[in-house]
Every structure is written in structure tokens, then in C-alpha cells.
Amino acid sequence: MDSKRIPTINMSDKLKIYAVLICVVLFSACYFDKKEQIYPQAAVATCDTTNTTYTATIAPIISANCASCHSTALANMNGGGIILDSYASIKPYVTNNFLLNSIVQNGSVKPMPMNSPKMDACSIKKISVWINKGALNN
């Protein structure tokens, strides 16, 4: 019978292997993310909603996050026919809770913005406050 010797690993080599494995695990878990996504309550806590109005607050948020699909020019191509570029066009989606449910992404309607990160917590809070105050055209 031909006996083959099984190689052994000395203690020093074992420590090196463990050190490399630990480094790989630790460094592979590190990545950068948005503070608002990791700590949404921190962003909401510093969010000023005292003077939330449609014209000064809500329209710019909707324009920045929704206009690429839901403007008058693009709604039929990209936005399922839903237009959100004026108070009159947004109001029905506020009334039926579609707007808030879609940006909160609670599962009751399709999450928006589609194929993009969720809106930041402060913007969502501003829209929610505006809706809770009656969604006035001011």
C-alpha cells in the first residue's frame, strides 16, 4: 500500500488564513448608503414642515421626482396616463390616497418613483403634512 502523507498546516499559517478571512468578511460588508435610507427618523426629525404649501413645497418635490414620467408631455408614454404637473391634475390622486400610498411604498399601490430609489423621508413627510392639512392649492 502506498501511503501518502497528509499535509499539515502549522499554527502560524492557520492564524494568517483566519486573519485574511476575517478581513474579507469585514470589508465586504462595508458600503456607502444614503443617511436618509439608513436612519429615516433622523431626516424626518430635522425636516421643517411648518410652512408647507403646494406652490413652494409640494410642486417642486413632485417636479423633481415625478415629472420625468408624469408630465403632460410624457404621461401617455411613460406614466400610464397619470399627469401630476399641476394642482388640478394631482388633487384626484391625493383624494383617493394613490399619491401618498405610492410614495410611502406601503404595498397597496404600485411604488413610486418607478425604477428609482424611494423619495427621501423629508419629502414624504412634507407631502403627508400637506395632505393632512387639506391639500390646499396655496
Strand content: under 5%
Count of individual helical segments = 8
Shape: elongated
Give the N-to-C terminal Cα separation: 93 Å
Largest sheet, described in full? Answer: none
CA-atom Rg in angstroms? 26 Å
- Class of secondary structure makeup: mainly alpha
Low-confidence stretches: none
Share of helix among residues? 55-70%
- Quick one: how many beta strands? 0
N-to-C series of helices and strands: HHHHHHHH
Average pLDDT, all residues:
85
Write a structural description.
The chain is mainly alpha-helical. Helix content is 56%, strand content 0%. 15% of the residues are buried. The chain starts with 10 loop residues before the first helix and ends in a 6-residue tail after the last helix. The chain contains eight helices and no strands.
Topology of this structure?
Layout: H1 11-28, H2 35-38, H3 40-45, H4 54-70, H5 75-78, H6 87-95, H7 98-104, H8 121-132
Helix pairs in contact: 4-8
Kindly list the characteristics that best describe this protein.
138 residues; mainly alpha; 0% strand; elongated
